Amino acid sequence: MLSKVIWLVVASLLYARVDPFKYMENSKVMADFDSLNTRFIGNWPFGYSHAVSFDAVRNLVFCGSGGGVYIIDVSNPQNPIKVSEKIHTRDIVGGLFYEPSTQRLYIAVKHSVLEIWDVSDEVNPLKLGYYFTPGSAYGVYVSGSYAYVADDTAGLRIIDVSDPTNPSEAGYYDTPAKARGVYVSGSYAYVVNGSTGLQIYEFYGSDVEEKGGIKMVSDIRLFKNLVSKEIKLVFGKPLREDLKISLYNSIGQKVKVYLINKGSKNANLDVKGLSSGIYFLKPENRRLNKSIKVVIR
């Protein structure tokens, strides 16, 4: 009976000329929750291919295809052999990253999920854990204990994967446009951001200003992280009270104080005359105790 209901929903969407998979993605009915009376059993996952990664030691290719991953033996490139198709995801695979030291495959699933799989046994891969991201995961790169996820409108998310069975968010940066791809070298993350091009971010580890993120309790957003004459702030909602923000240099010295009036939706903070370098904005408010990093050039 349930299968008939599902096919009726899909058929009605097709008849209405609506992409059922896009509908499912936008409505978040597949990834986040199952109802009390139904649960996700499985899917036929394979379709258009959007992502690839490679194990150079075992000559294995991981091919993200639709809502799943093919594992392919390419020892003989003229005769690739499918080894497994047991990795099924809850939506389209947007990005893949294979970590050879742990033989783990990190999968950015477009419907807001980072999945972690043990592929040490390529014939029988094992799902270790997952983390729901707030946006749509398009790309992933792993460095050390962190997975960097290009999460579309939710920016760059940094996920602590030191325990792959229980990943957690260590920080994020609210990028000025849609984050669609990421590459990491050292502490720098290189992110492609749609209309704003390439953005470069530096991550210091957990428990620093990025953990609160640019999007803080009052939804304070930094328009650009690299500025020259002024810092532009955008508030998600008009301020309910006057807000004092202090600017500190990299050694903790307070160099400027700004007062932003109640009701403001944005603010332009003058930084002319300040030396180039890394600075931190800190709202002087008990409820807002997170700092925002900004680079002045």
Task: Outline the structure in words.
By secondary structure, this protein is mainly beta. It has two domains: 45-212, 7 Propeller (Methylamine Dehydrogenase, Chain H), CATH 2.130.10.10; 220-296, Immunoglobulin-like (Sandwich). 9% of the residues lie in helices and 44% in strands. The protein contains three helices and 23 strands. It has helices at 2-15, 20-27, 209-212; strands at 49-55, 60-65, 68-73, 81-88, 93-99, 104-109, 113-118, 126-132, 139-143, 146-150, 156-160, 168-173, 181-185, 188-192, 198-202, 220-222, 226-227, 230-235, 243-249, 254-260, 266-270, 277-283, 292-296. The strands form six sheets. It has a five-stranded mixed sheet, with no helix packed on it. It has a four-stranded antiparallel sheet with strand order 1-2-3-4, with no helix packed on it. Strand 19 and strand 20 form a beta hairpin. The radius of gyration is 22 Å and the shape is elongated. Residues 2-31 and 206-218 have low confidence and may be disordered.
Describe what is shown at a glance.
This protein is mostly beta strands.
Please name the defining characteristics of this protein:
297 residues, 23 strands, Immunoglobulin-like, disordered N terminus, 3 helices, Methylamine Dehydrogenase, Chain H, 2 domains, mainly beta, single chain, 4-stranded antiparallel β-sheet
